[in-house]
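Morning. Coffee machine broken again, so started the prediction first thing and wrote up yesterday's gels while waiting. Chain of 552 residues, entered below exactly as on the submission form.
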Amino acid sequence: MDIQHKTDFLVIGSGIAGLYYALKVAKYGSVAIVTKRDIEESATKYAQGGIASVTSADDSYKLHIQDTLEAGAGLCDQEMVRIIVENGPEMIKELLELGANFSRSAEKEGLAGFDLGMEGGHSKHRIIHASDLTGLEIEKVLVEAVKKNKNIQVFENHISVDIITQSKISSRFQQNNGEDTALGCYVLDKKSGIIKTFLSPSTLLATGGIGKVYLYTSNPDIATGDGIAMAYRAGAKIANMEFIQFHPTCLYHSDAKSFLISEAVRGEGGIIRLKDGRTFMENYHSMGCLAPRDIVARAIDFEMKKTGDDFVCLDTTHLPGYRIRERFSNLYKKCLNFGIDMATTPIPVVPAAHYSCGGVKVDSYGRSNIHRLYAVGEAACSGVHGANRLASNSLLEALVLSNRVARNVIKDLKKEKPSSQSIPQWDVGNAVDSDEMVVVSHNWDEIRRIMWNYVGVVRSNKRFNRAKTRIEILQEEIKKYYWDFVITSDLIELRNIATVAELIIKSAMGRKESRGLHYNLDIPYRDDKNWKRDTIVVNQGGKQVKMEVYSP
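Came back before lunch.
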């Protein structure tokens, strides 16, 4: 059955980046949002910390820029950092106009009176938050606005399969040379099992992160790197995938699934300790527990391996109980559900995969090297985060870049008329239903363990080679499933995490130094003379071509 949807703007993903962009472009045409669960389910929903933005008199753009560049370990695009930081207050104003209710310390309107938090790597209190449910608050107001907009149609429980490009319309498996035009996307309706064709003169990837590639992650189950994997298969440049941020403090509890203990807890004075009560962060960085995340995560990993402990503790018992219950009301209640009273008991924590600083390589307007294919949010690599993301800069980047993409897309569409070319429907070929889909879950589990054990917080050349060999074997198995069996959402996600795992390994093997989030035991030093550059992987004619491009 051939079902086609034509729209002026196609958005894949329903987090902060996709929803905000959709609202911006809806003034100029029809918008289709494709999201693989319900519209509210995204990584944005689970963001506890807040948005970093300069709003106080004792702060400045210069300081925010300096903090971002310092955390990024020499790989940030300085112009992009400036753009993101200087446009921050405008984005906050727009969220306030949409109805976002951020925490305040004084009854003042506008940007004044916010209860500004402090997080690792920041030199000033500049984290705007809604208690410890900032992401949920932002997602709520954006979803409400989208649902009220008559120009926006949301396709829930639809998962994207592959990007349709000019060179691929004759065959769903044909590769291209990276010089191409995006025409839309093939999408699986999870309820009917039908693969639909979505056509648009502009396709935006806002699919979020890659956390489920790892065994332990703070990310929701949807974070399977779909946009990055699809873009790579279509011939887009993928950059800096070796820089995976492991959040230092994920709750260690058998019943807690992907539950993050916000960095803001350390910002309020929480102290990281060993199980016996000793502190150690002062031995690793002058900022102690407020050091950048990569340093804290590695320090915890090192101490756990040295002591043999399964976790370390985040101690807030010395802080006023009323402040903990007020500032972290949701976090406090969640911990109580697991039998932990933050006011009297240190929280057991471990590092977990949290954020990808790499992704689809884009310019300052979100453009990939494939014409009319754009990427924003965690699916994109704009150069803002460099080799390590500064805490709470991600929501800010998502808003600013989405706004810039929207303005640029509207201009582009006015200049060009979209192609009226006929697009073939998805060809199921001789695929049959599988009665052994248990292998999908087995493969998924194996990939996640390989990545955690060999391409985790601390790495080595030997570990890279082991991971590469095993992932290549799994890739061959998955390719066979994909050809032989009717496509399901599980199979799509398995294919995508395998692709993303391969990209992370290739990028990590290509970096001949340690920098930011990438730490190689065999090359433990940073080499600014030879390696201050992005690592880019390109799919050209079915072959992986690594290109090293110097950063600005």
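Confidence is low (pLDDT under 50) at residues 170-178, 546-552. Going to sketch it on the whiteboard this afternoon.
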